[in-house]
Amino acid sequence: MSEQSQPISDEAFPFDPAEYRMGESIGYLMARAKNVLSHGVEQEVDGLDITHAQATCLMMLAAGRGSTVTDLGRELNCDMGSVTRLLSRLEKRGLIERQRSDADRRVVDLSITPAGQILVNQLPQIYCRVLNRHFRGFSEAELQTFRSMLHRIIGNNSG
Fold first, then answer.
1. pTM of the model
2. Got the DSSP string for 127-139?
3. Which residues pair with 99 in a beta bridge?
4. Residue 94: which residues within 8 A CB-CB, separation 6 or more?
5. Where does the HTH marR-type domain lie (predicted)?
6. Residues 99, 111: contact at Cβ < 8 Å?
7. Rg (Cα) of the chain, in Å, rounded?
8. Phi and psi dihedrals of 96, rounded to 5?
9. Where along the chain do its domains lie?
C-alpha cells in the first residue's frame, strides 16, 4: 500500500489551518455538491408543485425514517418549527395526515395519504435522473467508494 493510500491514524490530523483554502476544502466542496444536487431536485419537483424539502420529507416518511415531527427534525437536521410548517403545507395539500398517538397523546403520528403515495412513487425517478446527470462518467467502483466514504464520515460523528 502506498503512502497516499494509508488510512489516517487517530493521532494524525490531515487538515492544517495554515494550508486551508476554502474553495478546495472538503467540507466546502461537499456543501457545494449538496447544493448543486438539491437545486437539481428542486427544479425537477417544481413540476409536481412541491419543494425539495417536501419531497424529502415524503420520502423519509415512506421509507420509515421517521413517523413524528421529532423524528423528521432529527433526520433532516432541522428545527421543529420548520418541520411543523413543512408538514402543515403537506397536510393542507392532502399528502399526509397527522393523528394523535393512542399510546402517548403528546405524540402526533404522521402518515402518507393515497395522494401522497402517488407522489412518492414518482420521486425515485426524479432523484435518479438528477443523480445520473451529476454523476455522469463515474464508474460503479467510484460510486461504491464514494458511498463508503460518506458512510464513514457519518459514522465518525456517532461518538
1. 0.80
2. HHHHHHHHTTT--
3. 109
4. 113, 115, 116
5. 23-155
6. yes
7. 19
8. -135, 165
9. 39-128
45 within 8 A of 52, measured Cβ to Cβ: yes
Q: Which fold has domain 39-128?
A: Arc Repressor Mutant, subunit A (1.10.10)
Write out the chain's pLDDT in tens, 159 residues: 445 566 666 567 788 888 888 888 999 999 999 999 999 999 999 999 999 999 999 999 999 988 888 889 888 888 889 999 999 999 999 999 999 878 887 888 899 999 999 999 999 999 999 999 999 999 999 999 999 999 999 898 875
Q: Which three cell numbers stand for residue 79?
A: 428545527
Residue type, 134: H
- The C-alpha atoms of residue 26 and residue 21 are separated, in whole angstroms, by 10
